[in-house]
Every structure is written in C-alpha cells, then in structure tokens.
Amino acid sequence: MMINKNISTSWKLIISILVCETVGFTSGLLSMIEMNSWFNTLNVPSWNPPSYLFGPIWTFLYFILGVSFWLIWKSNIPKPIKSKAQLLFLVQLFFNFLWSILFFKFHSPFLAFVDITLMIVITLAIILCFFQISPLAALLLVPYLSWICFAVVLNYNIWFLNK
Questions:
Q1: What kind of fold does domain 10-28+51-161 have according to CATH?
Q2: What is the pLDDT at residue 79?
Q3: For the chain, does the N or the C end have fewer beta carbons within 10 angstroms?
Q4: What pTM, to 2 d.p., does this model score?
Q5: Cα end-to-end span (Å), the chain
Q6: Under 8 Å CB-to-CB from 115, ≥6 apart: which residues?
Q7: What Cα–Cα distance (Å) separates residue 78 from each residue in 6, 17, 24, 114?
Q8: Euclidean distance between CA atoms 91 and 80, whole angstroms
C-alpha cells in the first residue's frame, strides 16, 4: 500500500477498505463450510458459533481493519515509522488470508493454530505501532484482536478434539 502520495484521502479510504474486504471475501470463498465436507466431519466444541455468524463478523472486522489502515496511510508521520506500521499490517493480513488455506484447504488445524497465534503476536505489535501514529487506528484493531483471540481458542480446541 505504499502508493503515490498524491492519491486523495477519499481514495486511500476506498482502497484500504477494498483491499481488506477483498482478502476477507477471497478467504471466505476458500472456507465456505457448506462446500467443505471435511469440516463437517470434525469434532467441534459445543460453543462453536454457527457458521452463519462468521460472514457478518468478518465483513465488519475487515471494514474496521481497512479504516484503521487508512488512518495510518493518510497520516503525516515520517515515512520510516509509517512504512514499518504498514508493512506489519500487510504481513498480518497475509497470515490472516493464509489461515483459511491452512485450515480448510490443507485440513491442518495445527498449522492454522500456529498461524493464528502468529496473527495475535503481529496484531499486538501493530496496535503498539499504530498507537504512536493514531490512537484511534490502534483502538479500531481491538475488536479484531478480541475475535482472533477467541478464534485461537476455538482453533486449538478443534485441533485437540481431532488429533
């Protein structure tokens, strides 16, 4: 996302949200439970949320991820600090996307667990980094961090129940 400075703030917002939502949409296509007979054979904890909740929750989370990234992108902070924050964000977005592939395509709850654990560590680093630039951008990541903390516990339990 280190794109030309001359892009208007509105376009930066649109691009930021579209990139995050596209990652989410593509990831969602890869993880559609209805199309994934393997998932239906797994033992899951009784508190596993119904599949219809994941789409709306992730759509909202990708939206706020995009807004958070936009707040950093449009900031007037020195380039090295901003570039580090943006790079961390994009690395985290990659691990986010990779999770669906590891879990649903490779059928590996263990590798997905490792991936999502890294996502938590990276997201904490992003929050610290973003806070120096925009406290609001950091605050917007808290619901995302909360959800992936829940997801890591769910992922672990699915892995444990199906070893």
A1: Ferritin (1.20.1260)
A2: 86
A3: C
A4: 0.91
A5: 40
A6: 95, 98, 99, 102
A7: 16, 23, 30, 33
A8: 16
